[in-house]
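I would like you to sit down with the pair of lines that follows and say whether tokens and residues agree.
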Amino acid sequence: MRLLFITLLGVCVAGCTVDIPNGVFGCLDDSECPSGFMCWSDFRCYDTPDPGCQPQSCEQIIDIFEFVGVTVECGDLPDGCGSTRPCDTCESGETCGGTAGSNEFLCCAPGECEVDPCIEAGAQCDSISGGFYCGTCSDNGFVGYQCIANQCVCDDVFEDNDTADLSTNLCELFTSLDLSICKDGVARLPVGVPYGQEFEGLPVTFDSEEDADWFVLPTNSKNVRVEAAFEGDIVETFIGFTCVNSGQPVVLCDDGDRATIEGVKGCVGKDLTAFAGCQSPIAGSRVRVFIRALPGDWEPECQTYDGFVGVSKIADGDIEEIIAGDDG
């Protein structure tokens, strides 16, 4: 650029006046500009001092936002110089952002642009005060999550039941239901009357592909029949048994295969039916039932599941069938 300036001077002789327009010459500082010119912040030479950043008008700001596909009409808008400028294009009767202050850059007629009461309350699901319903977790994009206290969460309230020793007592799990059969955490099973409860609607959740959920049901019987069926991405179900005041139980798997997991003898498969008996002359011998569920194909970050567990007492005379069916 300086070479161009020198060349222009070279074609002039004494008395020649060179009219240099503003913004023609590029520069890094004033020394690179023609005499009397100054280097502005846009790195060009001008014959007046740099006025600095010029804040944009509301019309300019709105036009710039519209150019990039964003509609703004009012509010404190960025002026292009690191500050904001109050703008208001709203018509009579309209308010900027609506009466509740949402959509803060739009003009809203009365009743429009109201804040969603669920968003205002920070609720992700279920009902809130005032009679507003915020939908289910699945409705709001939290597939597989449980709604607890208006929040969609993956951790269930029995999240520590990953081993047999930490099994959740089914009597405690269903305390909100009619379980007169449970007393002091023990299922007191009458002969021929099955104890059965569904998991549907309960906060039972897998939060990783390594998660395992263990449940236990202490009973007052030494001979039992157990069914377990789960819905959802359950890859494996286990029904197991231990004996209280006795040795190892005799187990018959009507469905599934025999297995011993964490020292608990039982049956493994999908939907299972199993029988067990604790044969001991010692008074008070009784069966403790274990159920374990494992997740299947892992896709979402959180999986809930439903299921059914049924337990019934078998009369002492019928236990011979169990013993006969047990081959070791």
